[in-house]
Amino acid sequence: GKYTLPTITTSFRNHKNVGSHVGYTEFRTGATEYLFQSVSPLVIHEAQRQLQLVFPPHGKVPPNLITVHMRWGDKIGVGKEMMGVNASMYVQAVQQILNDRTTTKAGNKHDDAVAHVYLATEDPKAVQAFTTEAPTPWKIYVDQFFHDMLQYRATNEQNQSIDVYNQAIASSRKTKGRAGLVAIASLLLAMESNDFVLTTASNWSRLMNELRKGILNPRCNNCTTLIDLQPANKLQSS
Fold first, then answer.
1. N or C: which end of the chain has fewer CB within 10 A?
2. Contact 46/231 with Cβ under 8 angstroms?
């Protein structure tokens, strides 16, 4: 192909903005685009399985889907990956997207009462908080990673899910690596949206955003939108 990882790396080193926030961001986006230009059939099969489960009964993605990624849990707080963003801010961001949407080609306004939200998170507290804050008519589809990995979350003596640093390592060990496959497939489902509510201070949100910019936008003439509730700083982008 036109691009190889060594070519991308060499281009990055020679980039006039190397060392700058812009240079790092462009490199990450380009590298992500390269890594996802060809997806394993195993991942495609897993994504198809998740489609059937997340969007029953036929796995059909609803129109005007909005992806919301809530990074809560063990990396939230002072000195950690990012500061917390409460559920009401995510709900307000979704409502802003609904308010900003233009009329359809037929001239009919989108029906805000039936918003469709793909909620990407691994935290039960985040799911509960968002569904509680969201207006009743909204349709909320929680990603399959949450459901599949819930049984592997650490619990306390009361058998309640707790935040333990980097549970991904433990769940990957317990599932013999399947957790990674489920996560990547759920990421593909998140890309079925044109509108995103993210916190790019989080690594997973940043990956979603790089796929949005590097793969979705070039294919749809920059049709996607983003509300970033906690942008990445220069250090995180590097």
1. N
2. no
